[in-house]
Specification:
There is one protein chain. The chain folds into two domains: 6-141 and 355-456, Rossmann fold (3-Layer(aba) Sandwich); 156-350, 3-Layer(aba) Sandwich (Rossmann fold), CATH 3.40.50.2000. 47% of the residues lie in helices and 14% in strands. It has 20 helices and 14 strands. Helix 11 links the parallel strand 8 and strand 9. It is globular. The model is unreliable at 194-198 (pLDDT under 50).
Length: 462
């Protein structure tokens, strides 16, 4: 049978994914698609009631395999990309920790950030030759010159609130998770021992390296505060991190604030510079033409995240960090301008859509032929079984809401995906439209908690 032009875009982390997937949704509606976009938990629950279409998965870990099976048995076509397929220590470790053997081969089509991401997938020993398309990711579209104005008002509000500030982004969620029981790298170190070389389990080696960096960042914050007492410093932890850890350190530091709200693009635009280690935000900062500083007090050829660090001004100790921050706060860009000239082609290997056609355009051009073809036939018993499994899965998640140690607990869910309403989505669509001169006549309808249907105004769906 010929498929409906229906697109399903689930988002796990609001500040990371939602704006970018909403932009993709706008492009799709303009081409005549009907799009369901929003909180993954809500859309996954409603998947049996959504017209058969293309479900775009956001990761390829082994944990996704069960639900991807439900998606296919419901009659949806399965396509996937990996939100975390851009930044990693090395391809082997990425394949070990982020790519499940079964999950990798379930989608009909894999959408890669760039050549490096595609090579990491095709080099997986279990890869069976599924179709790969190098399209980029909509998150990179938000960094292009024509769309930087999308966050202008938010960036100006941040500057008004915090002044001419220095941003520190941390990414220690597996050592400092919002839920203590989810500290996977802590468990690895406890169970496997910290004295590890690359000859041992590389996951333990990575955990040991990150633990050292975590300790250095905790010691660095007071030192940086004392060295630059007149500079406002904002520390923005990863959405899954326990902010209380940083708040305790910052409690006696008058010029330091710990804030965990809003899309990082607005923060990058507002800040004078960003300090990080191995963080995706450094790639985003580079594409925004904003300087980033990689603080690297511990160096590892095996476990450092090369891409973000190589796009940053390097600081290997506190002395060089202070020097880099001094230059950044003074507006000196010599070192960063040299990086831009040197690394632009290198970035293109990782993100194909930094220029030329946007990721949204490339993705939809790739999906159009898939939507025009007949999908696999799904028998009624198979679909009924999938609906039963989907209901059981949702019931299990409802039960887990009662456990504070679960990621399904409301306190954690509200942290990872703060609720968004239809009026906010309509305003965002309007901002995209004003910047690009398009997207008129898009209708927004709430279908579940933080989940929405976008379609043409003249289209009526019951």
């Amino acid at each position: 049978m010929k498929f409906n032009r229906t697109l399903i875009l689930p988002c796990e982390t609001r500040v990371r994914e939602f704006d970018a997937k909403l932009l993709l949704a706008c492009h799709a509606v303009e081409r005549g698609w009907r799009v369901f976009v929003g909180y993954k938990r809500s859309l996954d629950f409603h998947a049996p009631r959504i017209p058969k279409g293309i479900y775009v998965g956001k990761s390829l870990t082994y944990r996704n395999a069960r639900f991807y099976g439900i998606v296919r048995d419901l009659g949806h076509r399965l396509v996937a990309w990996d939100e975390e397929g851009l930044v990693y220590a090395n391809p082997d470790l990425y394949r070990l920790t982020k790519v499940g053997d079964v999950t990798l081969n379930m989608p009909e089509l894999l959408l890669a950030w760039g050549e490096e991401n595609a090579a990491a997938w095709s080099g997986h020993p279990g890869f069976n030759g599924s179709e790969l398309a190098i399209t980029g990711n909509p998150r990179s579209d938000l960094l292009r010159p024509e769309l930087r104005g999308y966050f202008t008002a938010e960036a100006e509000a941040l500057r008004a609130e915090y002044g001419d500030f220095l941003l520190i982004n941390t990414n220690f969620s597996r050592l400092n998770h919002f839920i203590d029981q989810q500290n996977r790298q802590q468990r690895l170190l406890r169970d496997g021992g910290a004295a590890v070389t690359t000859a041992g389990d590389p996951r333990i080696g990575l955990a040991a390296h990150k633990a050292q960096l975590f300790e250095h960042f905790q010691r660095m914050l007071p030192e940086l505060s004392r060295r630059f007492p007149e500079v406002p410093i904002v520390l923005r932890p990863h959405p899954s991190e326990n902010a209380a850890t940083w708040e305790r350190i910052a409690a006696d530091l008058d010029n330091v604030r710990v804030v965990h709200r809003g899309n990082v693009v607005a923060w990058l635009q507002a800040a004078r510079s960003t300090v990080h280690n191995g963080c995706t935000t450094a790639v985003e900062s580079f594409l925004l033409d904003r300087p980033a500083i990689a603080y690297r007090p511990v160096v590892s050829d095996s476990f450092d995240f090369e891409l973000p660090n190589s796009l940053s001004v390097q600081a290997f100790d506190l002395k060089s960090l202070f020097k880099a921050v001094d230059a950044a706060m003074a507006g000196t860009r010599c070192a960063f301008e040299a990086l831009i000239a040197e690394r632009r082609d290198y970035v293109r290997r990782h993100i194909v859509s930094v220029d030329g056609p946007t990721a949204c355009e490339r993705i939809l051009d790739t999906l159009e032929p898939l939507a025009a073809t007949s999908g696999p036939t799904v028998s009624l018993p198979r679909r009924a079984g999938a609906m039963t499994r989907a209901r059981a899965r949702h019931a299990a998640r409802l039960a887990l809401e009662l456990l504070p140690v679960s990621k399904q607990h409301p306190r954690y869910r509200s942290r990872i995906f703060p609720e968004v309403g239809a009026a906010e989505v309509e305003a965002a669509v309007g901002r995209f439209g004003a910047l690009l001169g398009r997207f008129d006549g898009i209708r927004v309808r709430r279908v579940a908690e933080s989940a929405f249907e976008l379609s043409r105004e003249e289209a009526v769906h019951r």
